[in-house]
Amino acid sequence: MTPTQKKVRSVVLTSALTVGLAAGATSAAVAAPSAVACSATAQVPAHATAADLPGCDPVGIPVELGEPTEGATDTWQSTETDGVGYKVPADWAGEAIVGDGGAGHEWTSPEIAVSDQWGDLHWRILVQSPFYDQEMPDPEVLNELGWYASSIDVEGASEAVLTAAQTGHWADPSVETIDFQVFVQSETTGVVTRFMGELPAGEEGQFLLDNFVPTIEP
Question: What is the pTM of this model?
Fold first, then answer.
């Protein structure tokens, strides 16, 4: 897959998901057409209010962040993107990539999630820091739009927002997936970092999300 192709599929995913996600249900649902139309709003300005935007159907099934599994990340690889530290599973591979939010780093699993016109698509996490507009999304606005968003506590962050839902993979709606985005603003630099991607549905994806999110160290 060429860098150009990788850039395109990042844009496709974000336009389909807009800004968000949160973690763990057991069945999948494909977003209704009205929800997809609402999600095309793209990045919601931090100053927007729920009253400024129309209500939408739920986008997927909400996933709530669980407690990390003790010792689960001991064997994960510690890494960083532009000074923001985090961990990913030891067998995931990473490379530089350009996404809709600017330059970043994409990590992909050995397992293939979907094969389509892009080739073999793997479960992935895309990290962009700094995120291009440096604005934190408002969970209230996202929930009004049909996303499932909440503020979360992240060590070293002045603010962090997680949005995640279980739905159909953007490239193949018949494949269940947990789609997520995490926005983290460093309390020392003010820089906003975005983590986003697709994880397997059910327990495996829940495990990955539970143990990935709390390791962020802005």
Answer: 0.78
